[in-house]
Amino acid sequence: MIPNPTPPPDLTSFFNRFSNEELHQIGLALIQQSQHSIQMQQQVHHPASSQHSPHRLPRIIRPSLETIFSIPPLMNHQPNCSEVRPLMEQQTTPVTSTPRRPASDSFDNSDGNRQRMKKRLRINDLPPRNEQVEQHHLPTLIPPHHHQHSFNMNILKRAVSSNLPCFFIIFSASVESKHIPSSIQVAIMLKKLFADNQIPIKELSICVQAGERRFKFAVAEIIKPHSLPDCYALVVRYVPLDINQDTARQQILKTIPATVGFSSIHYHHRQHPSYDIRFTVRSLEQYQTALLTGYRLTYCTACWKIGHMRDKCQSSVSCRKCLAPYTNGVKHSCQDIFNCAQCGGNHYSLESICPVVKQYKEELKLAVDKALTSGAIKRSIPGEVSRPFQQHANDFPLLNQAKVNSHSAWTTSGNQFLHSPLKKEMSDLVVTIKALSETMIRTEKSFNDLNNRIEAQHKSTVLHCNSICAIIDTVQIMSSWVQDSVLTQWENNPCPLSNQFIPLNVLTYNVQGWGTRALEVMDLIFKVDSPVCVFTEVRELWNSFKVLHFTSFYQKGTNHSGGVMITIGKHLRATRIDTDIENTIIVDILGLSEQIRIIGIYWPQG
């Protein structure tokens, strides 16, 4: 058993300097550390039991303010020294004998992390018991407000908002070793900095010391990728195989010194043997540089030879592959046989493997470098600001300067003579404008009066329309009432009306042939003034002549001399009754005081 040491100093004044959140983090870390030390001691004394039950660990609870001040007895032990040092001096002796644990054990109370930690611990790596007691001495912390340390906000935002791995914070050499905060203080400072800048985070998944002045931290809700992709990667394509990779790297390093991570990319489907080189540029200044293209070849697109252009070529236009000349109006059929216009080889005319093209490029490079060195030509520097245009007096001399007479554009003489007419015109214009404004005022007033009269007329029209509608409704009501009263009086009238009877004359006549005696019959009808006529023996020509204003009904006879016809005036309504009896016709007359039936019958003598 460990003897009861000297009681620790009063920590109430020290912990009063922290907020509840900071005390929560400190107490959680201290309790986890004490429980972990108890675990390690149990494994030292009872290795067999720890091997048989590796998953039996004490549960970690969220500490409150009471549990923070009630530190377990194991944490209250002091090192064997003659006197107790002040609280602020104890921080100068850093505790380095504690074995490294995953950061999730310091800020996460999950059982899975404790189980993984228990598997990693080994008995051989444990320090002696006395050292184990000393290393769990109560750590002394310096409040964050005693030593202010600033962090770059862009780096912190990038760590929180992107799926990035752990970040490292390195304190500068100007900060003394005794003033470097612990990992818990760094975590508290980071969370406070995130809260002040309104950056929402849940928890820090890791915040441990990774060196004397370096701290490693990460965020819990960020998904960490397996590897960090190259942000500033470039690819040099189509490098010939005859150029060694080391030579290519040296040339790239000459141009971009901050180049790392070289890798070659080979493609098997390329027609000509070449490869690509991929690399990463560490310096942003060297990455954001203007592209300096290579020297361009001067070649002809008609004959595909180098050294001249198409406008100076005297040859006909030919195919790029086989160099066969094109014919107007004839579709070219290429044989897919490569023919170089420079050396006659089996490749394109401008291919880089052509020896003539290679020699031309080398000579061109030497000539351009020589011209740049001598100052014959000048290469424009990317980003260079061009000088503004400055015109000198002798740049554009006047033609025939002796004969040119300069005349000023604006003459100042005679201005006094123009002042008085201008003043008069201005005064007249002012008077005209005043008169026009008065006229406009009067016009506006008359328009307002007219508008008022129109509104009054509209109101009176609406009133008349309403009155007329009311009169119409009244007339309709009165008319219906009058009609009803007249009808009632007529129905209840006891005096019958006197009827006027007109005698109805009926003419009966034996025609004996309508075809020859029709005119005689017509004259007889109008003389007698009979609306009803019965004619017998009309024979077959009864329809040869019609009687005006009469309706005729005919029935045939037994022989050609028979036939009966009845004519009724059109002012009477007549209806024929169908019958199959020969020489007999029946007609009913309607519209009279009573219905009359006229029957016409003819009986011949034979």
Q: Could you walk me through the main structural features you see in this protein, from its secondary elements to its overall organization?
A:
Residues 88-116 are annotated as: Disordered. This protein is of the alpha+beta class and 606 residues long. Among the domains are: 1-79 and 101-140, no CATH class; 142-229; 233-287; 310-372, no CATH class; 506-601, Deoxyribonuclease I, Chain A, CATH 3.60.10.10. It has helices at 12-15, 20-45, 47-52, 65-69, 104-107, 111-120, 129-135, 153-161, 183-196, 245-255, 284-287, 355-374, 415-491, 514-528, and strands at residues 167-170, 204-209, 214-219, 233-240, 259-266, 274-281, 506-510, 532-536, 550-555, 564-569, 573-577, 584-590, 596-601. The strands form four sheets. Strands 7-8-10-9 form a four-stranded mixed sheet, with helices on one face. The longest helix has 77 residues, at 415-491. It starts with 11 loop residues before the first helix and ends in a 5-residue tail after the last strand. 12% of the residues are buried. Mean pLDDT is 73; it is low at 1-9 and 45-149.
